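Onboarding guide, step 5: your first structure request.
Type a short instruction followed by the sequence, for example:

Predict the 3D structure of this protein.
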Amino acid sequence: MKISVLLPTRDRLDLLRHAVASIVRLEDPDYEIVISDNCSSGDVEGYVASLGDVRVRYVRTPEVLSVTENWNNALAHSTGEYVLMLGDDDALLDGYFTRTRRLLAEFDHPQVIYHSALLYSYPGVTPGMPEGQLRPYGYAPFLRSADRPLRVPTKEARRLVRQAVNFRFSYGLNIQFVTVSRGIVEELAGDGDFFHPPFPDYYAMNHLFARADSIVAEPHPLVVMGISTRSHGFYCANNREMEGKAFLEGTGKWIEKPGQSQLLPGTNMNSGSLRTFEELHRQLGSPAELAPNYRRYRMLQILHVYEGHHLRGTIDSEQMAELETSMSRWERLRYGLLFALLSGAARGLPARARTQVPRVLTLIKREVPWWQSVPDGGRYRDISEVVQRIQGADDPARWETERGSRLGDWILARVFP
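The system replies with structure tokens like these:
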């Protein structure tokens, strides 16, 4: 049974080499690597030819496509019964193929295998972490509560999708988390594409969890997700959202569709998520329980702009005024009072206590679970060093106790639903 590992790439040949090396070093009788070159300026084709490995296939787009289009292109050129999508700055860990094939046999070929992962930030990517960092990255509840593979009940999977369209992300939506069967890919794509913009992984992951009948969870990390200085994650972490948006779009633009809800000024992560969830809702037949929560979208955008203007100095008065023209009188009163209090606290509190002010906003937003992963203590120059030093038998998925107050969460949910 062939497993296809998809590697879309554009102008990151130095990173692509690490990704390919992490795969070909593993022993497996039946796999292929499909490299979809999104019109790179470097000689990716020459690199692939130099490998002399028939399992590594190369295709090139005739022009620069969006990330979503290139993902669909890689998928269209694959032939495996199961598919894993990697970024060209990602890598496979020891045991990926052996563990995956074991799960396929043990659980009678499930449609989806959702495996844990590690997250590696290259040096210089994340503010405050100049030497980079490696940490576990599998915060889904079914991963944190398990010490061995298990089936994810369909009821639990649907609940996680409902939370996601409410802008509460209880499980990781990066597509690298899943190995999926060709059958479910074709079923969900229908006569169209499996991946949809603006955020193809947010769309595909929630589509899988909304429709798949057999999902298996593997708590052991099988992949390393890389964040390099030329990635969407880097742009988001460094307050360079417009560059991140351009990175996803390529030379095209997201096309607004008739009847879509109004977008508010704020972060593109929220607006892109809203548009993605609207498309998912449409593809699922518009069930009421999976409609995107526009009320929470508004709250998150307002909090982003008010925080940037009043606390961080990253939002100017013109942007603030643009947002307020779309706000109700009650919204202006409520958020104006909140940030008057927070601004006063930020000015009047001792320096040590002042750092707690942003955590109040995290409490209000409640976008991700209360969890804190334990970072690995090592230092790594690149993702190949991660692969070499993290052996298959070593599972660094250790978790600290969840933090948060249920009472505080209940109170905040009443004021900021």
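Each response can be followed by summary notes, for example: The chain has one domain: 1-252+368-417.
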